[in-house]
């Protein structure tokens, strides 16, 4: 499931491979992925423009667009949310699949059915950008409102983090997953950072001491950095031990399983009691 590190990889890919390429075609026929827009609405808004910059907050990406030859005023932002299984696929003029950094990847490295490309943009040079999503849970929309999102998990300051994790009765894991409080942490990252910080996922945020909150903040930053370097949230140290019969790799205690904040949760029965 894409979390902040995977979404940041998608943002970098767009920044590296899709900017300043004139848009000559848009397939926005999937009305579920492009809701509330009707077919043709995104196409009409994007044709003749190019992407000029790409931004991210938490798990949300939006791409700024240029004016057209007839109208120099910048166009709308194109919002992209990968959902649970989406990823961005960009091809060059010859159909080769591009990767961050500019190098080609084996063409169609992952076999894809045409219907799994839920939204596509064709560039004048012959290449294209697609939202590839087997589960059809991603979203594309114009001018997305990101004001309801909290500060990005990579950019939040330690003081602001401490304030958001110091009061209330909600479980600390539920607070980590609340995108209005801190944007970008998903289920795997939440389990990883709580294990790294030795904090129970069910502990009320109001029970955390300032030292606990600071330790959790450092764990969030370290986990994000590690996941970005290693390829995603699934590479966390505790992730391979999130199953029945597993024992904590740090102290050998039994790993426990339950539901916290409506999400499947794993924790060390000793250090996170």
Order of helices and strands: HEHEEEEEEEEEHHHHEE
Q: Strand content of the residues, in percent?
A: 15-25%
Tell me the overall shape. elongated
Give the strand order, joined by hyphens, for the main sheet: 1-8-9-5
Q: Give the end-to-end Cα distance, rounded to a whole number of Å.
A: 27 Å
Give a short overview:
The chain is of the alpha+beta class and 273 residues long. The chain has six helices and twelve strands.
Task: Describe the model.
The chain has 273 residues and is an alpha+beta fold. It folds into two domains: 4-142, N-terminal domain of MutM-like DNA repair proteins (Alpha-Beta Barrel), CATH 3.20.190.10; 158-268, Helicase, Ruva Protein, domain 3, CATH 1.10.8.50. Helix content is 24%, strand content 22%. The chain has helices spanning 4-17, 41-46, 158-164, 172-177, 187-197, 210-230, and strands spanning 23-27, 51-57, 60-65, 78-81, 87-91, 97-98, 104-105, 117-123, 128-132, 139-142, 255-260, 263-268. The strands form four sheets. It has a four-stranded antiparallel beta sheet with strand order 1-8-9-5.
Furnish the topology, listing elements before pairings.
Elements: H1 4-17, E1 23-27, H2 41-46, E2 51-57, E3 60-65, E4 78-81, E5 87-91, E6 97-98, E7 104-105, E8 117-123, E9 128-132, E10 139-142, H3 158-164, H4 172-177, H5 187-197, H6 210-230, E11 255-260, E12 263-268
Antiparallel strand pairs: 1-8, 2-3, 3-4, 4-10, 5-9, 6-7, 8-9, 11-12
């Amino acid at each position: 499931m894409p979390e902040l590190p995977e979404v940041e990889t998608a943002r970098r890919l767009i920044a590296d491979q899709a900017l300043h390429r004139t848009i000559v075609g848009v397939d926005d026929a999937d009305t579920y992925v492009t809701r509330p827009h009707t077919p043709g609405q995104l196409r009409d808004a994007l044709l003749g423009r190019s992407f000029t910059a790409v931004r991210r907050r938490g798990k949300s990406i939006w791409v700024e667009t240029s004016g057209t030859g007839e109208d120099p005023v910048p166009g709308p932002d194109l919002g992209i949310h990968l959902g649970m299984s989406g990823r961005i696929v960009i091809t060059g003029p010859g159909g080769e699949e591009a990767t961050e950094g500019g190098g080609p990847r084996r063409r169609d490295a992952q076999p894809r059915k045409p219907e799994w490309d839920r939204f596509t943009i064709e560039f004048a040079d012959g290449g294209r950008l697609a939202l590839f999503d087997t589960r059809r849970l991603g979203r594309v929309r114009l001018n997305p409102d990101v004001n309801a999102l909290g500060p990005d998990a990579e950019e939040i300051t330690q003081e602001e983090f401490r304030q958001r994790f110091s009061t209330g009765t909600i479980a600390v894991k539920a607070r980590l997953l609340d995108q209005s409080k801190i944007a970008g942490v998903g289920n795997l990252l939440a389990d990883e950072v709580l294990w790294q910080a030795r904090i129970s996922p069910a502990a009320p945020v109001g029970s955390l001491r300032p030292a606990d909150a600071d330790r959790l903040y450092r764990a969030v930053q370290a986990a994000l950095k590690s996941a970005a370097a290693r390829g995603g949230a699934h590479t966390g140290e505790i992730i391979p031990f999130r199953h029945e019969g597993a024992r904590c790799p740090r102290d050998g205690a039994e790993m426990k399983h339950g539901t916290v904040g409506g999400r499947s949760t794993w924790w060390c029965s000793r250090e996170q009691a």
